Amino acid sequence: MDDLTLVRDHTVYRCVMGSRAFGLATEASDTDLRGVYLAPTPLFWRFEKPPTHVEGPLDEQFSWELERFCELALRANPNILECLHSPLVEETTPVGEELLDLRGSFLSRRAHVSFSRYAFSQRGKLLADVRVHGAPRWKHAMHLLRLLISCRDLLRTGRLAVDAGPHRERLLAVRRGEYTWDEADAWMNRLVAETEAALTATPLPAEPDHARVADFLLRTRRASAR
Questions:
Q1: pTM for the full predicted model
Q2: pLDDT digits (tens, 9 = 90+) for 108-155
Q3: Rounded to whole angstroms, what are the CA distances from 113 to 23, 148, 152?
Q4: How far is the C-alpha of 199 from the C-alpha of 152, rounded, in Å?
Q5: What are the sequence ranges of the domains in the chain?
Q6: d(Cα 56, Cα 6) in Å, to the nearest integer?
């Protein structure tokens, strides 16, 4: 079985991500598809294991094998957690529905570290653009601000919101370059400070519910072996 057939025949969950899921799309925005596939258990009995991820078969589509997806979600990978909370779900199976029911099990204070590390790396790229070109790539600045808002609100409420909601117009103004870099940078710094403050009183548990996720994966693998 080739990789694309694996995705086509065994996808359990597929959603739209990127600007469309964030409520920040423009006419030029692509439709980014993200998915999860369940490789049949017998494929793991061979020396050559099934892939942990696959690009395609559609343009702008990327999928993870279920175990890899769960592993990254337990680590609070920002892209993976947001994929689980996309408001634009295109396909789901009973296994996919159970995965969605587990969304809260993946959320923990680990998100503070993972989101912050990702934001730090992205801000470094923006600063490099400012040094070289005098301005950042404003689309990337917008998405970084949205990520910081998402992280702050996750820590405050214990819930992960993907859609930009009430911040949409302000974020789109950043994308259009209507802010100076100093103004955008000051907004980022405020969000970082608010995130640190939210961490002290967050309702999130210290660790994700690893046992519940492991039980789901084991039951799913066993069912696939029949």
A1: 0.93
A2: 999 999 999 999 999 999 999 999 999 999 999 999 999 999 999 999
A3: 25, 12, 12
A4: 8
A5: 3-107+208-225, 110-199
A6: 11
